[in-house]
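Q: Joint fold for the lines below.
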Amino acid sequence: MAAAPDEFSEPDDLDERERTALETLCKRLADDEFVLAERYTEWQVRAPTLESDLALANNAQDELGHARLWYDVLGDLGFEERDLIYERDPDDFRHSTLVERPFEDGNWADPVLRSYLYDVAEELRLEALADSSYPKIADRVEKIRSEEGYHREHAQNWLERLADDEESRERLQATLDELFAHALTLFEPCAPPRGANEASGDKPRAVDSGIEADIVDLGLRTATLDELGEEWLSIVVPYLESLDLAVPIDGDGDDDGFEVTAAALPDERGRDGTHTDAWAELYDEFTHTYRELGRDEPTAIMDAPE
Amino acid sequence: MNIDTVKERAGPREFSPADELPREYREAATRMIEFHANSEIMGAYLERPFIRQAPSIDRKLAFSAKVQDEIGHGQLLYRAAESLGVKTREEMLDDLANGDGKFLNCFHYPMESWVETPMIAFFVDGAAMRRQATLRRTSWEPYAHAMDKVCFEEGFHVKHGEDILRELMSGSKKEQQMTQEAFEEWWPRIIQFFGPTDDKSTHHDFAASVGLKQQSNDDLRNAFLDQYIPKARKYGLEIPDEPRIRERDDGTYAVEEDDLNWDEFFTIAKNEFEPGLGQINGRKTAQEAVDWVRETIERDASAAGGHAPQAAD
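A: Joint structure:
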């Protein structure tokens, strides 16, 4: 029996369809935040000024905090930090490839642009989660939203400043050409989680499993990925163009507006379990100590989020 | 104000930018605060890989926050140093990149494994806490003021470092062993944190006479050993045989100075120690890679006809 959008079951009696939808949604949210934070921290002690160093560290910690909130929702399904990060198969991570891309040394245009592209998408998806049928998700949206607004403002300040300078704008443009296709993967559906069906093991794994439709039908999220993607394009394309940047996308935005087409997507999309080579390296680095010390439990030092 | 008046008046938080101070005082204070600020930056540089390598989200968050705090301390301290009118922040940061800026001996050593993190975050930061607590009474008011905030935040860092140590020393046999080995390697350096005995310290007399420095190296080292030898033992660490440490009748400790490698210490003090140079140059390369951003900010500022804004941060 399918639950009505506003009648999602209690954590203890979720049926298989609900479990899979909840797991898939939370993993994509949490993994995005976690991996983005991991990359942001690379700018600590390497940013252009002490002030920008502090600001980016701040954003990294905010994103880590959000990852903690979303991973914690997965605790309702019995997952622990060990299963979700330190002992998880790297192929099972579902973040967009936008967040896993390595930074080229000194390319400050990248974190600024990446943050803008990501934070606009983040705002839209939070809006679509504010009335989630899963109360814990809806409850956490407000806290996250208040911080994301600041991130976007920070990114835009920098973008406008860099775009105003010819040489820096060229760097922005080159970075945009690199990042844009990966940003589109933010709106791609996820492959089923490991063990959820027989498709695991195939790469790229089937993404047309209907899980994404379930996420919306069950009211976990109130907008579809297509809707979110189109809305995102309708914001970022004109904004970037207003900075004299050329956005690498077909179509002129008339009539039906822009849409995310398969042709515009990169080979690796993250959401489907395929990742760029940089991901394997990053995963090795952040699990290094855990493996080196033979740990079997990540250390919790803070209380679980309320 | 002449130097005799400075010495007469020298008391806690006695002097501020409103005072006309002799060059000798301003230079000594600049040297001391710049050293402190540089140490914050290079300490952060040393610890940053462990944000990534931290073995849990919570530890990662704490490490990222710690590294951020150290950069914040650097920012505060450069401001306190700048207010003496001898050097600008840019000059100090450039000197640090060029290998002319001096900083703490411990931050010249590379750090490779998580088990080393409490050597910095507990012992070195603990040692720094002792010195910093006395500096809240230094005669340069902006420096003392910066110390209020720094000491407050360092308190958390030391607690976190202690917790990492406790966890490692109550972990697997392998963890305990690795931690003990790291401790043996770091222990002499940690003791050298306080520098040579007072009679070998070049800057001590003047800095003490004008109230910049509040306690001698010997006193600080003693107080540190008093407090940290029992703590190390409590977590199951064995104090290495060398350097030999003798307990005096009054309960204080005397370190056999000849057991410490002072050649290395003074090579480090000149920024000529190979591993340390690697760190100085690593940071320099990272800074050069973002020169273009600072240049953009400067062009932006000169176009606006004003001073480089530090907004957008």
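Q: Anything notable?
A: The two ends of chain B are 39 Å apart (CA to CA). Confidence is low (pLDDT under 50) at residues 308-313 of chain B.
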